[in-house]
Amino acid sequence: MARRTPPLLRHLFRGATDGGASRLPLDLAESRRSVTYMPRPGDGAPRRVTLIPGDGIGPLVTGAVQQVMEAMHAPILFETYEVHGDMTAVPAEVIESIRRNKVCLKGGLRTPLGGGVSSLNMQLRKELDLYASLVHCFNLQGLPTRHEKVDIVVIRENTEGEYSGLEHEVVPGVVESLKVITKFCSERIAKYAFEYAYLNNRKKVTAVHKANIMKLADGLFLESCREVATKYPGIKYNEIIVDNCCMQLVSKPEQFDVMVTPNLYGNLVANTAAGIAGGTGVMPGGNVGQDHAVFEQGASAGNVGNEKIMEQKKANPVALLLSSAMMLRHLRFPSFADRLETAVKRVIADSKYRTKDLGGSSTTQEVIDAVIAKLD
Fold first, then answer.
1. Rounded Cα–Cα distance for residues 318 and 330 (Å)
2. 10-39: string of b/e by CB count within 10 Å (b at 16+)?
3. Is 207 within 8 Å of 235 (Cβ atoms)?
4. What's the CA gap between 258 and 102, in Å, rounded?
5. Strand, coil or helix: 303
6. 3-state DSSP assignment of residue 178
7. Which residues are CB-contacts of 244 (< 8 A; sequence separation ≥ 6)?
8. Where does the Isopropylmalate dehydrogenase-like domain lie (predicted)?
9. How sure is the predictor about 372, in pLDDT bands with cuts at 50, 70 and 90?
10. What is the rounded CA–CA span in Å between residue 166 and residue 176?
């Protein structure tokens, strides 16, 4: 992916000029850029990262990341905490660790169905105000798919919408569930999407909505996106209704670049795009806010695996390895990120070591060993 040069980044955040993308003072703009996945020069000092192995295949794939980080001699120190989806809440010491370290890497956490048990994933996002979910769905050389030239970034509002969890039983047999959309959250996710597009040389941002039916809620989301779009004249902006979006995704996905969506739609769109580009097992992602970031497998479908995969130790570590490359860039270690990404892509291109979901029969450890062998 092409990236802006430092002079262009400085120009982006320069004081008021003619119709540019940002009018923030440099010091404030730098702090806001912390939510993007851009390589920035660092001092090279080791960074502590909170590690949550999670449920199911989580310990396998997070263990894979630890092995590769050690093989690269990456300046990362992990603080490991046991968290499982059947807990009533994320332990306070885990939240404190993430607040202290600013960055977390996690495996999947099971979310119990029904029963009034809250999702720990949602708890983390709300507690740390991780308002933006980013999933990068793209073709990998050597991995055949129905469509080519797929390179989609799905940016999803992460804290409100249908996932607010505001529901109650009005009378027995009647449940009311509220969809919450605010201008504040809509504006900041739109700004994040356009900022990401600008800094990463992306050409187009597409807002996904259902404003033809939910005229007030999704209408407010669209209004916010339109306002922000006027501040980025160099980036094409368009809108698409979510049902048409799904149809277009499976028929002509190469038309999409950056997509910005409310919460529920983003979950569906990201998993659909991931399936088109090669599967959820190879798509990286993360959840970010102003001060904290949690990196994990990008698409949520099947992220804890099944008993057979765990018994055979054949979980696919690619998605979390690529998410870890995102994390390394976020931590200002771009050279390590490049080495990791290049090694993973070489293993996929060689097609000798692949897990079952990618058409192979390799174990997790065999894939890890292959990645380590490809490190420059």
1. 19
2. eebbeeeeeebbbebeeeebeebbbbbbbb
3. no
4. 26
5. coil
6. coil
7. none
8. 48-371
9. very high
10. 8
Q: What is the b/e burial string over 333-354, where b = at least 16 CB atoms within 10 angstroms of the residue's CB?
A: bbebbebbbebbbbbbeeeebb
> C-alpha angle with apex 221: 295 to 18, nearest 5 degrees?
90
Which tokens hold the place of 369?
Answer: 């060993």
pLDDT band at 7 (very low <50, low <70, confident <90, very high): very low
Question: Which amino acid would we find at residue 110?
Answer: R
Residues whose CB falls within 8 Å of the CB of residue 87, separated by 6 or more in sequence, listed in order = 120
Q: Which two tokens stand for residue 91?
A: 């332990």
HSE-CB at 29 with a 13 A cutoff on CA atoms is: 16
DSSP state of 359: T
Say which amino acid occupies 283. M
Under 8 Å between Cβ of 34 and 24: no
Which pTM was predicted? 0.84
Task: Give the pLDDT band (50/70/90) at residue 35.
Answer: very low
How far apart CA 342 and CA 112 sit, in angstroms, is: 37
> CA 351 from chain center: how many Å?
26
